[in-house]
Design brief:
CATH topology of the largest domain: Isopropylmalate Dehydrogenase
CATH class of the largest domain: Alpha Beta
Number of helices: 12
Number of strands: 14
Bound molecules: nicotinamide-adenine-dinucleotide
Shape: globular
CATH superfamily of the largest domain: Isopropylmalate Dehydrogenase
Length: about 375
């Protein structure tokens, strides 16, 4: 049987994950998705009990699970805890121990929310792009790094952008696989004009895609031009693969195209297992723990629900169920049901639970 570990975390994390749990149960009852669910603490909640942002036991469960569904961590009450025990350390440990090197951030614009984008409706309506960001290498981890006192009243800050062939190859394969399942178009972004690491990235991506994914249409775009193209004509892209630093920036730009933080899912994947072919995976909303609205039942659960849809598609290979869940969310938005963060005139405002109810009703209606 499949097994999922749920790590709700802090703030609105437990509220939105409560709705995801109800949706998982629905798929069990209505669509035969047999799964064992376990739950554990992460972030500030884990710190309060274990003095660490994730316990070794929870970490072991994560390593054994088919997928981890993560809520959010953090809050002002843990602002002053020791650096290594801060809530975010739980997420960082999960990413590094599970070897999650590929971060998938879809930017989908629901027609009903196209007016919430900072771009004009016709530029974003129907937008569906997937940004694949390398997550464990590049300038955020490269050595040497640090701040050096030069002794003459000057200091020097250093970070190193570094990639090796295997790191580029494996992220290119993840992106290639995704593009094959989508529109068969892949764009790769770097700065080969000024950085040797960009040149290497460009050459290795080209090698992998032309030899292993010959059906794909591959395009290389300089990262600065890519930022511009994303706000000029975002629909030109299907899958976009890039490194850790540029991915950080380009995926935030893409996020803004779709309107609200409460709508954005993400997935992080590791290398495929040699025997099962299945990758370790963690699915999480892009937003944080939203302390300003925590405990009020107001949070939008759609980002977490859409993250579970990604788990259905990419870990459990239940594409039809993922489509059904995404269609149910679209249906609910088309009917004018809204949480406060995406509220528009003439729509019906509901809370976290109300949005969960609406998605469940739509699933039942569309799943017949
Ligand atoms: P945030 O994403 O928590 O909130 C930003 C704003 O968006 C807030 O006004 C919030 O109310 C709103 N918002 C976010 N998600 C929403 C949702 N689902 N429904 C409705 N409104 C929503 O970012 P922040 O305020 O910068 O950070 C708050 C805490 O979360 C901090 O402790 C931060 O470190 C942490 N954080 C955690 C993660 C994570 O767990 N992956 C990510 C980002 C921030």
């Amino acid at each position: 049987m499949e097994n999922i570990l749920i790590l709700p975390g802090d703030g609105i994390g437990p509220e939105v994950m409560g709705e995801v749990r109800r949706i998982i149960d629905w798929f069990g009852e209505a669509r035969g998705f047999q799964v064992t669910l376990d739950e554990d603490l992460v972030g500030g909640a884990a710190y309060e009990v274990h003095g660490a942002a994730i316990s070794d036991a929870a970490m072991e469960k994560a390593m054994q699970s088919d997928a981890v569904l993560f809520g959010a961590v953090g809050g002002p009450q843990w602002d002053n805890v020791a650096y290594e025990a801060r809530p975010e350390a739980g997420l960082l440990r999960l990413r590094s121990d599970m070897g999650l090197f590929a971060n998938l951030r879809p930017a989908i614009c629901f027609p009903a929310l196209a007016d919430a984008s900072s771009l004009k409706r016709d530029l974003v309506e129907g937008l569906d792009i997937m940004i694949v960001r390398e997550l464990t290498g590049g300038v955020y981890f490269g050595e040497p790094r640090g701040i050096e006192d030069l002794g003459n009243g000057q200091r020097r800050g250093v970070n190193t952008q570094v990639y090796e062939t295997y790191e580029i190859e494996r992220i290119a394969r993840v992106a290639g696989d995704l593009a094959m399942k989508r529109g068969k178009r892949l764009a790769s972004s770097e700065k080969r004009n000024v950085m040797e690491s960009g040149l290497l990235w460009n050459e290795e991506v080209t090698k992998i895609i032309t030899t292993e994914f010959p059906e794909l249409q591959l395009e290389h775009v300089l990262a600065d031009n890519c930022a511009m193209q994303l706000v000029r004509n975002p629909k030109q892209y299907d899958v976009l693969v890039t490194d850790n630093l540029f991915g950080d920036i380009l995926s935030d730009i893409a996020a803004m195209l779709t309107g609200s933080l409460g709508m954005l899912p993400s997935a992080s994947l590791g290398a495929p297992d040699a025997t099962t072919g299945r990758s370790k995976s963690l699915y999480e909303p892009v937003h944080g723990s939203a302390p300003d609205i925590a405990g009020q039942g107001k949070a939008n659960p759609i980002a977490s629900i859409m993250s579970f849809a990604m788990a259905l598609r990419y870990t459990f290979e239940r594409g039809a169920d993922a489509d059904l869940l995404e269609n149910a969310v679209t249906h609910v938005l088309d009917k004018g049901v809204r949480t406060g963060d995406i509220m528009q005139a003439g729509c019906q405002e509901v809370g976290t639970r109300g949005m969960g109810d609406a998605v469940l009703a739509a699933l039942t209606e569309l799943g017949k």
